[in-house]
């Protein structure tokens, strides 16, 4: 393994962890409960922040491993793989929406605009300041993640080049704190809840929290190893997530402290399952959660219009059961057709005359 300025020489290779898919499954269920307007789950929209922390952790871990091995990042390969993983399923969903939405909601007059803004990953700022997309409100989180994918790899390399070996976690911790303070600044300025909730710059803290954990897992500073030995004492923190389900939309407490609590709870869960043993790991690796987690991207894409249509006609138990079943079916159809095809293109190795090496599956 090659040495690099910002990384300690810790031998670490990511291996598949079913509990991470299980955590995705939990997150998508929470989001669906929120959109189905289930009583006592008003704050289940915080499930999106579980996705953010997990995404930041996985993406940063893969980037750091590549940098350890090659002392550089192949930006083109990274963005190409992200495109083939995310865009085909999104375009399929948007095409179906453009065709079917006029039949379900004849009064909608912004269908094509909503699809275009979503496809361009502008929904976060579009919803916050221009009410667009007005119907596909769930597209905001995909835009937040896409902005992170664009900005984070070159910024991470800059931090690696400028940081002392084994100390990368420090500037990432600083970025996490600053991003949290930036959100609090806008709360203090009296900005509306939705103007803060949907934007990348005020919601990047979850992605940075996951990135911080990735650096800590690889660099293994002494204090994090000591903390891992005391995990039973901090496992109480994830219990705060069910209690926070009563936080209602438009409650600024979510912005002030709620998001930070969820981010910290997600970090504790991720640390708890790293060794792939223990009660939390066994709970999250339940087959139903793992399978749901594997389909979670598609379920997230399809569930919102499905749930929106059902909740206008039926009570919430029907909306939850039917909405989840229909969303899983549509997601599976997408996953085993166009997404499988796209992932074969994503994982194709470079040609030998390009001086490439086989690309490994993420």
The sequence of SSEs as H and E is HHHHHHHHHHHHHHHHHH
Number of strands: 0
Number of helices: 18
Number of domains: 1
Helix content: over 70%
How far apart are the first and last residues' alpha carbons, in Å?
20 Å
Strand content: under 5%
Based on secondary structure, the structural category is: mainly alpha
Q: Tell me about the biggest sheet?
A: none
Low-pLDDT stretches: 352-362
Mean pLDDT across every amino acid position: 90
Q: Which overall shape is indicated by the principal axes computed on the Cα atoms? A: globular
Q: What integer value in Å does the Rg equal?
A: 20 Å
Question: Which short descriptors sum up this protein?
Answer:
mainly alpha; 70% helix; 362 residues
Walk me through what this model shows:
The longest helix is centred in the last third of the chain and has 31 residues, at 316-346. The chain has one domain (18-354). The chain has 18 helices and no strands. Helix 1 (18-35) runs antiparallel to helix 2, helix 3 (75-104) packs antiparallel against helix 18 and helix 10 packs parallel to helix 14. It starts with 17 loop residues before the first helix and ends in a 16-residue tail after the last helix. The chain has 362 residues and is mostly helical. It is globular and about 60 Å long.
């Amino acid at each position: 393994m090659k040495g690099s300025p910002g990384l300690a020489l810790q031998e670490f290779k990511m291996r598949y962890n079913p509990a991470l898919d299980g955590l995705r499954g939990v997150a998508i269920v929470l989001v669906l409960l929120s959109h189905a307007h289930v009583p006592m789950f008003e704050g289940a929209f915080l499930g999106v922040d579980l996705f953010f922390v997990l995404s930041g952790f996985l993406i940063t871990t893969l980037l750091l491993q590549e940098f350890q091995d090659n002392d550089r990042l192949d930006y083109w390969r990274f963005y190409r793989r992200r495109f083939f993983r995310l865009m085909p399923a999104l375009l399929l969903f948007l095409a179906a929406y453009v065709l079917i939405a006029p039949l379900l909601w004849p009064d909608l007059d912004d269908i094509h605009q909503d699809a275009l803004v979503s496809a361009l990953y502008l929904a976060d700022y579009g919803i916050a300041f221009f009410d667009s997309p007005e119907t596909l409100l769930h597209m905001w989180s995909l835009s937040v993640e896409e902005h992170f994918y664009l900005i984070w790899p070159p910024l991470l390399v800059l931090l690696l080049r400028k940081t002392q070996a084994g100390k990368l976690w420090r500037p990432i911790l600083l970025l996490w704190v600053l991003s949290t303070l930036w959100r609090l600044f806008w709360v203090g300025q009296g900005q509306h809840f939705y103007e803060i909730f949907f934007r990348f710059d005020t919601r990047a803290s979850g992605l940075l929290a996951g990135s911080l954990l990735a650096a800590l897992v690889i660099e293994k500073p002494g204090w994090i190893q000591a903390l891992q030995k005391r995990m039973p004492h901090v496992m109480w923190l994830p219990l705060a997530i069910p209690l926070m389900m009563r936080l209602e939309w438009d409650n600024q407490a979510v912005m002030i402290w709620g998001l930070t609590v969820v981010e910290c709870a997600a970090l504790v869960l991720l640390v708890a399952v790293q060794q792939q043993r223990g009660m939390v790991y066994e709970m999250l690796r339940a087959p139903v959660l793992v399978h749901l987690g594997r389909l979670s991207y598609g379920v997230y894409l399809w569930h919102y219009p499905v749930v929106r249509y059902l909740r206008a006609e039926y009570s919430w138990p029907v909306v939850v059961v039917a909405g989840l079943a229909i969303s899983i079916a549509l997601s599976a159809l997408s996953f085993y057709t166009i997404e499988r095809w796209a992932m074969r293109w994503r994982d194709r190795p470079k040609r030998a005359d390009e001086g490439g090496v086989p690309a490994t599956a993420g």
